[in-house]
Amino acid sequence: DEPAPVGNYDQRKREEESRLRGIEEKLLVLVLDVEDEEEDDDDDEEDVVTKTMEQIPESGTATYMVISVFKGEQEGDLTIQMGEVLTILSKNEDGWWLAQDSKGNKGLVPKTYLKVPSTITEIDATDVLSAMGAIPAGFRSSTLSKLLDEGNTYRASHYIQPELSQSKLSFKDLFRDPDTGKVRQRTARTSLTLTLWSCKSIPTPGVGVQVLSRHIRLCAFDGTQVLSNIHTIRATCNANNVKTWSFSPRMTGNLPSLLDGDCFLRCNSDAPELGILFELGVTYIRNSTGERGDLSCGWAFLKLFDTNGAPVPHRTYELLVHGGTPYEKDIEVDPSLTRGATGTGMFQQMMLSRKLPKLFLKLKSPNVRTRSQLSALPDTLVGSLSSIHLLVLHRQLLADILLMDRATMQNADLICSPLLATFPEIVDQSDLLDALRVNSVAGSRLRDLPLLKRKFVRVYMDNMYPLLYSADLPPPRWADEMVENQRARVIFNGSLEPFHTHTPDSPPRHQAFDISQLTYDLLCMAQ
Fold first, then answer.
1. How many C-beta atoms surround the C-beta of residue 73 within 10 A?
2. CA neighbor of 64 nearest in space, from 14, 114, 128
3. Which of 50, 297, 337, 436 is 20 to 30 A from 257 (CA-CA)?
4. Which domains are seen in the chain, by residue range?
């Protein structure tokens, strides 16, 4: 069965070697030609960059510019100054990057203090708009919007997942009471509710910029890094007074959670500077180019603990809105408001104070029922108060399935649970979460927990699960009125209530099936 021997083997071998050497020589010639062309292009580009930005060293994509002063607080931190250019040596997932300054000093710095330096081909949109006079000098690109665009790290879908312990063999924040069968309540350092009332004297973009959305993004913040998910609330304003923003407008039917100014915040961080960061923002489109973007109209910070570590009182607060980013200090939103204000009298100060942009809100202590619901949630989470009962039910189902239904606590096999696998997607889409809330609100006060869980699962699987993967439902796009209206038509389907039943003449269309729609992967989902 052996193959017949090859005739003239030595001669054919020499011919093959000669042919391969010829190909190799041709490839070497091509490589040399390409390298010569690239060197010429690099020399030209290097000359242009050197002439325009001499302060930026040659280090490619690993070069970042410091946007605010950071003083190292622990051993291994690198103290940096605003405007300084750093070389990034490594990027850690926790947001602390290893950097090297121009003097050769190395250390860790928070990534939120850095930005990619602009070149001729990469210019910040805010620089262009500011040069055109279309926005005030204190406006910046939205800091929190950029974090949301990085993935789900700063979204609620990430924070509702259980957190594994250090050993990775148990859960750190998810326990079940064996006597009641309920999720064991946990006390967090901060657990409160707040109501956004209004924003006043907020400057508006000028001619050539159309505002698509006015909103506030809020999160737990310690002056250095974001400590929670980022929650967004859309503001409304009167056409005759666009500088005043309001929240929770009166309307018929249920108030969408996106417009609801009533929020909750839980955070278990022990940072002494722990507080709430509010970023006032607008989503815009340039009329001339059609370019979309997110601008920060200023920010405010409410510290939640005093110098002695005691919680601040729950009352109404009037917060001054600052310009720039949360990492910049003493920047005014609109310097023209205070230009020429030289009077020191009380009347002059009062008149000046009325012109400055401000945010009005109220911190509140939750009632007994709300406090009990908050204690069942993850240690860190920010969200709408209207959806809290849905989050609690999801948490209860997590505890039942992960702590009771698994064969052993060390079992990490895929779990067949469409609800657990897909509920995080619902949480990040406020219109779908509202539809679930409207349909399940009738049973939200049932005291029979098993009955309440069965009703929740039935409503979810009969209505939300098919809707989430409907081919007629377009992907969400922030501040796109056409997409939002199309999604609303699919969700309500011409009915006053969500989940209008399809007829035989118009059966629903679904996306292609994927196994991730059915299975909950504990190792991938848990933090």
1. 8
2. 114
3. 297
4. 62-115 (2.30.30.40), 125-160+183-339+346-364 (2.60.40.150), 385-495+509-525 (no CATH)
DSSP one-letter string for 326-368: TT--S--S-GGGTTT----SHHHHHHHHHHS-EEEEEEE---H
Element (H, E) at 12: helix 9-52
Whether the pLDDT of residue 318 is over 70: the answer is: yes
Query: Using the 8-state DSSP alphabet, how is residue 403 labeled?
Result: I
Are 175 and 184 contacting, i.e. CB atoms less than 8 angstroms apart?
yes
Q: Is residue 436 within 8 Å of residue 459, measured between CB atoms?
A: yes
Q: What angle do CA 87, 90, 96 make, to 5 degrees?
A: 95
**What's the residue count for the chain?**
527
| Distance between CA atoms of residues 249 and 156, nearest Å | 24
pLDDT at 442 over 60: no
Question: 349: which residues sit within 8 A by CB, 6+ positions away?
Answer: 343
b/e code 414-430 from CB counts within 10 Å (16+ = b): ebebbbbbbbbebbbbb
Q: Which helix (H) or strand (E) holds 16?
A: helix 9-52
Pairing status of strand 140-141 against strand 96-100: unpaired
Q: Would you give the end-to-end CA distance of the chain in angstroms?
A: 60
Q: What is the pLDDT of residue 252?
A: 65
Predicted TM-score (pTM) of this structure: 0.77
